[in-house]
């Protein structure tokens, strides 16, 4: 029994103190830099109510993550759009779809304000689709 314990403790010491292991582990700064280099799908999307046709339009620098966030907010009853929240609760998630309306491509070597570009593209879709009041869940923009 002691031999087994000593063996396990010995392996544990070797693994935690191993200089090669430390070289394999990345620093927080390295991981942060790698994350910044990832290229997520960016664009404008809509959440469509397939029963009444209403839509909620928005943009994001990470389309995969934003869908997860909206679903979580809707599932937990904390979505900022009260109308969408109400319909989600009454009709169920199976009556809603997530649709990408337009994507923006990453441009290497060019300093681009993607958030600004996305907001302009989102505003174009809001103007075209008018997803307000009976047509959608977005708030009417202030003039």
CATH superfamily of the largest domain: GIY-YIG endonuclease
Measured distance between first and last alpha carbons: 78 Å
Instruction: Report the top-level CATH class of the largest domain.
Output: Alpha Beta
Order of helices and strands: HHHEEHHEH
Q: Pairing-aware structural class of the strands and helices? A: alpha+beta
- Strand % is 15-25%
> In which order are the strands of the major sheet placed?
2-1-3
Could you report the average pLDDT, rounded to the nearest whole number? 86
Cα-based radius of gyration, to the nearest Å:
24 Å
What is the strand tally?
3
Q: Which segments are poorly predicted (pLDDT under 50) over 5 or more consecutive residues? A: none
State the CATH topology of the largest domain.
GIY-YIG endonuclease
Morphology call: globular
Number of helices: 6
Instruction: Count the domains.
Output: 2
How would you sum up the major sheet? 3 strands, antiparallel
Residue share in helices? 40-55%
Description:
This protein is 50% helix and 16% strand. The protein contains six helices and three strands, in the order αααββααβα. It has a three-stranded antiparallel sheet, sandwiched between helices. It has 143 residues and is an alpha+beta fold. It folds into two domains: 2-36, no CATH class; 40-135, GIY-YIG endonuclease (3-Layer(aba) Sandwich), CATH 3.40.1440.10.
